[in-house]
């Protein structure tokens, strides 16, 4: 790897509010502090790092707050709720990074960039919601919420039922130049929170927010390509990617080429709601940049970037 390695690290919203948690401040602060220690080590050892993060559980909770207060306080649309989640989580992640660096005796600026992401208004995702947000409900609770409020729910990878919203594909990161300059100047940048605030170009050419939640793995892959990152790290709940996941003949992989990843994808080893988007995002970055992607867990990153599953050209 080059001397001044630029690493984009993407962390899932479910790592910040876990599946069995309600999303209290205390839970989020603890998860971020413990979860980020490996990332802070990467920063402390001299790498340039851009941190991106999901927001599914958090933006879902903000929407529930909006919904609960709508008779007394004017409700805000999903893009504004997404922007709120960037501020909420950006603040907690930024503070945790600053504290972690200070504890290691390292002086680095840490900034959060409110990030807009261009999407296509004709993206078919607007007609077919797929992105799970908010708490995990039982089937019965989901049916009641649908009947009462008209929300759409879907089963999320065997973990329960969650509200689903449109998730258009990210086309380009509006603040890419600022993020690249900051990161290459040694600032730690938190960007593309919640996959970024989805925007389109309106009839006058002005940016307009649209109601959706972008997948943070896809947004991170586009960002990594646009800021010329050396490596894209997608952090999730497993140390390595497997074929035959959950079956007796499961095999965890240390590495795979994009061709192998595509073959396993086509063979159905990576489900659409969980590992599928990560593999698709990693493959897109490796194909477009010629660099490598790594899929691994926060625990594994504690030991550097040597473990996990590496995807190579
Ligand atoms: N082939 C596979 N290899 C490894 N993990 C898999 C595979 N297929 C599904 N998974 C599951 O997918 C999860 C990652 O998806 P998800 O939890 O939705 O991501 P996120 O961390 O972004 O919230 C893993 O923790 C694992 O439980
Ligand atoms: N926006 C997004 O991808 O969030 P999650 O990581 O919570 O799914």
Automatic annotation (TrEMBL):
CDD domains: AAK_CK
Aspartate/glutamate/uridylate kinase domain: residues covered: 6-296
Pathway assignment: Metabolic intermediate metabolism; carbamoyl phosphate degradation; CO(2) and NH(3) from carbamoyl phosphate: step 1/1
Signal peptide: none
GO CC annotation: cytosol
InterPro entries to which the protein is assigned, alphabetical: AceGlu_kinase-like_sf, Asp/Glu/Uridylate_kinase, Carb_kinase
A single GO molecular function term of this UniProt record: carbamate kinase activity
Catalytic activity: hydrogencarbonate + NH4(+) + ATP = carbamoyl phosphate + ADP + H2O + H(+)
Domain of life: Bacteria
GO biological process: L-arginine deiminase pathway
SUPFAM superfamilies on file: Carbamate kinase-like
Any Pfam family the entry gives: AA_kinase
Keywords recorded for this protein, A-Z: Arginine metabolism, Kinase, Transferase
NCBIfam families with a match to the protein in the record: arcC (TIGR00746), PRK12352.1 (NF009007)
Family: Belongs to the carbamate kinase family.
The protein, known as: Carbamate kinase
Source species of the chain: Anaerosporomusa subterranea
